[in-house]
Amino acid sequence: MIGIPIGLLASNATEWYLHKYALHGVPKPEGGRKSISEPFMKRHWSHHRRVRLQKYRDDDLYADFNNSPDAKAEVAALLKLCAATGVVFPVAPFFTLTTWYCAWNYWHVHSQSHLDTEWGKKKIPWHYDHHMNTNQDANWCVTKPWFDYIMGTRVISSEDLKESNPLGIPLPKFVEDRLNALARKYAPRAFEKLDANLAEEARKRAQGLDEAMPDFGQQAA
């Protein structure tokens, strides 16, 4: 059973890593970006532009799967990841099954959020912020914001939109209050970074920078 939490954490870490280093890439000193998957990075840039122009919606990617090469490429990549974790199924079945669930959940949540934007804004506000903030090189997690909290890359756009706890899941208020207090007590530097990110985002929005189209060649990773 230990494979279940390990699978959940590994999947969330994979979301964070691949989103940052494959889909966005990192800026090169001479300009442009370096990615571990150039084709996926180019597709992802197009996704960002459409989402920014259409206020978080992307029908071109998800409304008609049969006629969307990019959606098919996304599913193919998820299936390859599932095949990779399937290798250890004989010795770690709970881990493998958990990663398969996470792959399905990623597809479901990500596609649904860009087709039903109000649902997406409420369900995964960290991903809404990823697309609609002034700096789109942050908020790398999609299904849950765990590794963005751990890595200090969660940039919250506003207090009224943000998730009510670092796990990004509904909890009884007394549990949530205790969790938030413990998180701030034992990870003070992480929350100092998160508070600074929130203040910086508010400053940029006050300057109207959230209306600009993202420049992927210039934004810092």
From TrEMBL:
Cross-referenced Pfam families: FA_hydroxylase (PF04116)
GO molecular function: iron ion binding; oxidoreductase activity
Fatty acid hydroxylase domain sequence ranges: 6-153
GO biological process: lipid biosynthetic process
Name this protein carries in UniProt: Fatty acid hydroxylase family protein
Species the sequence originates in: Fluviicoccus keumensis
InterPro entries: Fatty_acid_hydroxylase
